[in-house]
Design goal:
Length: 206
């Protein structure tokens, strides 16, 4: 029953936010293009419900073709591939806002396990049967793992958090995660990698 309510809330709030953020949809792409030529929207394959691949959207924060440069897919503190406006977008998490459109189309939810890369920390078929439960629900912009350490915890612990969420998903838990996320955003905690990304870090390409 809550899954239906959750989806309805996702639709309502995503429409409201798309309208509220109209200035951002206009101004941020212009600022990105002024500093760095190329598509202001970064698109990347991620694993969604039942391991199905979908396209996630972000505002581009690195120069075009950054993943093909010497430092590889992952960014780190002082990474020269990150643009000046990109640094601000990451620090404030504004780069994640285009995922509201992923929510509206049903590929994501506001709250849920963060969608992983198709190959990192592992391919879908390499997850154990227990670990695959994290894919039983729509991935989220934020989740229980993100408010309990985010990039500071390893993937096994993240998946444990995600599976706990899937097994106990409720309006109360979502409200708690939402409030904790707001606090983190205000403090701008853990919004950027502080060292070269390893298996315990989330990709921040884009």
């Amino acid at each position: 029953m809550y899954t239906v309510v959750k989806r309805l809330l996702d639709i309502i709030f995503s429409i409201i936010l798309i309208i509220i953020f109209i200035p951002i949809w206009v101004l941020v792409p212009i600022m990105i293009r002024l500093e760095s030529k190329g598509n202001p929207i970064f698109v990347q394959d991620r694993l969604g419900v039942n391991g199905k691949v979908f396209k996630i959207y972000k505002f581009r924060t690195m120069c075009v073709g950054a993943e093909n440069m010497g430092s590889g897919q992952y960014s780190f503190e002082g990474d020269s591939r990150v643009t000046k406006i990109g640094h601000i977008l990451r620090k404030t998490s504004i780069d994640e806002l285009p995922q509201i459109f992923n929510i509206l189309t049903g590929k994501m939810s506001f709250i849920g396990p963060r969608p992983t890369l198709t190959y990192h920390p592992m391919k879908f078929e390499e997850y154990s049967a227990e670990q695959k439960h994290r894919f039983d629900v729509r991935p989220g912009v934020t989740g229980i793992a993100q408010v309990n350490g985010r990039k500071q915890i390893d993937w096994d612990k993240r998946i444990e958090y995600d599976n706990y969420y899937v097994a106990n998903m409720s309006l109360i838990i979502d409200i708690k995660i939402f409030c904790a996320t707001l606090v983190s955003l205000i403090k701008m905690n853990d919004n950027e990698n502080v060292e070269e990304t390893t298996n315990a870090k989330e990709s921040k390409v884009g």
